[in-house]
Structures are given as structure tokens and as C-alpha cells.
Design a protein that fits this description.
Length: about 325
């Protein structure tokens, strides 16, 4: 059985969508704008008034806020962003529903849950990670944990990787994801058996997702060109590059990375890195976020992107903006 890896990285397409959606404007987008994404040249534009309720039974102020005119006041770009957000949310919901609907192979699932519980009890001893639940179905097992400390992510990732060396190991792949719920950080690991198959997207949704991905890539290209053209304020950039390098190297020292490039200009610093373990990837992301809060850094966190490819290689890019 090939080496089991723990990949914390989303695919290129999903990362592009996530980065694209991360730049939503500060104003609130009404539900009416969150219609399915469409390719402008091939199918109609999203119907931004489809979810508008009957305004006759509402107070005048509420009726004005929910009116077609209010929805139409959104720019085309805002409507497209809202539509792409809806596309991604629908995809996530479908995938979650498919996992929940998978039947449970009791003969395999219950013994495997017990083995995983015993394994995690031995590995997670620092008190930084709390296991909330282990649920095995037929082709996968899902482990939900609560991170009590950022360093717990490294410990959990290492524990998942160690499953590959166990005699009872029945998995061929693994993945992890991080989410926030009620101010708490949840870290979910998924171990998949060889018969596990990704769920196919409906053709219409796949087209909409492809359109969102293409639009996000174009936007990233424009932003990259603007950043590359920005001049360098050497009096600020050179000291900041040195401080960031020293800080990040110290923070990820136990999880070394292969390459760390830092490029500061006038209004931002770009951090790019490559590595080969999930634990190192988590450590770097955590360190970059923490760097902006340091007293010596007049920075704020910006957009980030990451890619996993091959068996055990990842690449990350982060931006920190000068305040």
C-alpha cells in the first residue's frame, strides 16, 4: 500500500476560488445576489431579484432594502462574486451530504473506530488537541478534533500520518481541513480506503465552478502584475525581510521547510515557501499569521493560497500588508 499522507492543502481550483471570494467588499450582499454562477457569453446572467420577497406586506424601510432596485445596485463584479460564493457553498453541501449518506459497514467501521481511538489516545498527549468524535462509514473514517493550541495541529497531523505504519492500517489516503465554529478551531481528518471515490459534480455546477475558477485566476494575474510593478522602499523592506525571515525560521524550526522566499516592496511583503510534510505546512501558516501581531511588525494579514501536489509536497504563498 502506498505511503499514507496527510494533505492539508486544497486543490488549485478550490484555492483559487477561496482567494477570489476572500476579497468580497465590506458592504453586505443580499441573498438575492447569491444566485447560481453563469458563464456570461453562454447562459443568462444570475437573476438577482429571484429571492426578493413581497414588499407590499413590509414596512416602507424594509421594502426599500429588499426591493429589486437595491439588488440591482450591486455591481456586476459583486454579483459575480456572490454567485461564485453560492457555487462553492453548494459544492460543500453536496459533498457533505454524500458523506453523511454513505452507509455504515458495521463489521469494519466499529473495530476501526476503536483502533483509531486507541491510537490517538497514545499520540495526543500534550493536551493541545481534544478528539470530539470518530466516525467510520464504509469507504472512509472522519476524525473531528478541537484545537486548544495552534501547535496541536502539528501533533494531530503527525498522528494521522503514523497510521500508515500500523498493522491494522486499511487506508490509502488522507486529508485534513480547518474551520472556525463559534470562535473555536476545528481540525478534521479524513482517512480514505482504496475504494473511496470522489463524488462527481453535476455538469451545470461543474461549468459554473470552472467559470469562477477562470475568473479568479484572471483576477490573481492582474493583482500579481500590479504587485510586481510596485517599487521597493528599501529603508523599510530590507529590515522587514530580515525580521520576518528570522521569526518564521525560528517558529518552524522543528518542522523545517525546503524553501522560504520573502519579498517586501512598499506596501506589502510576499512570502512563498515549499515543503514536504503536512506538519510543516500547518506550522508555516500559523507562524505567518502570528508574525503580523508581533510588536516589531507594522503589518496586517492579507490573502493566502496553498497547493498540494505529488505524494508529499506543498507550496504556499502569503501576503502581509503594511499598515
Amino acid at each position: 500500500m502506498r505511503k499514507l499522507v496527510a494533505i492539508v492543502i486544497a486543490g488549485v481550483a478550490i484555492v483559487a476560488i477561496a482567494v477570489f471570494l476572500a476579497h468580497l467588499p465590506s458592504e453586505t450582499v443580499t441573498p438575492a445576489a447569491a444566485a447560481p454562477e453563469r458563464q456570461p457569453a453562454e447562459v443568462p446572467k444570475p437573476d438577482v431579484t429571484a429571492d426578493v420577497t413581497d414588499t407590499r406586506a413590509q414596512p416602507a424601510s424594509t421594502a426599500r432594502n429588499n426591493s429589486p432596485r437595491a439588488a440591482a445596485s450591486l455591481t456586476v463584479e459583486q454579483q459575480e462574486r456572490a454567485a461564485c460564493q453560492a457555487v462553492w457553498e453548494r459544492r460543500t453541501a453536496r459533498e457533505r451530504a454524500a458523506l453523511d449518506a454513505e452507509p455504515k459497514d458495521a463489521a469494519w467501521a466499529y473495530p476501526m473506530e476503536q483502533k483509531l481511538r486507541e491510537h490517538l489516545t497514545q499520540k495526543l498527549r500534550s493536551g493541545q488537541v481534544e478528539v470530539l468524535g470518530i466516525d467510520c462509514k464504509t469507504t472512509f473514517c472522519e476524525i473531528k478534533t478541537l484545537l486548544l493550541d495552534p501547535e496541536g495541529g502539528n501533533e494531530f497531523s503527525a498522528a494521522i500520518s503514523d497510521v500508515s505504519g500500523k498493522s491494522w492500517n486499511d487506508f490509502s489516503g488522507a486529508g485534513t481541513s480547518i474551520s472556525e465554529e463559534s470562535g473555536k478551531t476545528l481540525y478534521v481528518g479524513q482517512l480514505t480506503r482504496p475504494q473511496f471515490r470522489d463524488r462527481a459534480q453535476p455538469s451545470e455546477e461543474a461549468q459554473a465552478e470552472a467559470a469562477c475558477t477562470a475568473r479568479a485566476i484572471e483576477k490573481q494575474a492582474r493583482e500579481r502584475a500590479a504587485r510586481d510593478a510596485e517599487p521597493r522602499d528599501s529603508s523599510w523592506a530590507e529590515p522587514m525581510e530580515q525580521l520576518l525571515r528570522q521569526y518564521l525560521t525560528a517558529q518552524v524550526g522543528k518542522q523545517p521547510i525546503d524553501r522560504l522566499d520573502i519579498d517586501c516592496r512598499t506596501t506589502f511583503c510576499r512570502i512563498e515557501a515549499n515543503g514536504r510534510t503536512s506538519a510543516a505546512s500547518i506550522a508555516l501558516r500559523t507562524a505567518v499569521q502570528a508574525a503580523a501581531a508581533e510588536p516589531w511588525a507594522n503589518l496586517r494579514t492579507g490573502e493566502s493560497g496553498s497547493t498540494g501536489y505529488g505524494d508529499d509536497t506543498w507550496k504556499q504563498r502569503h501576503f502581509l500588508h503594511r499598515q
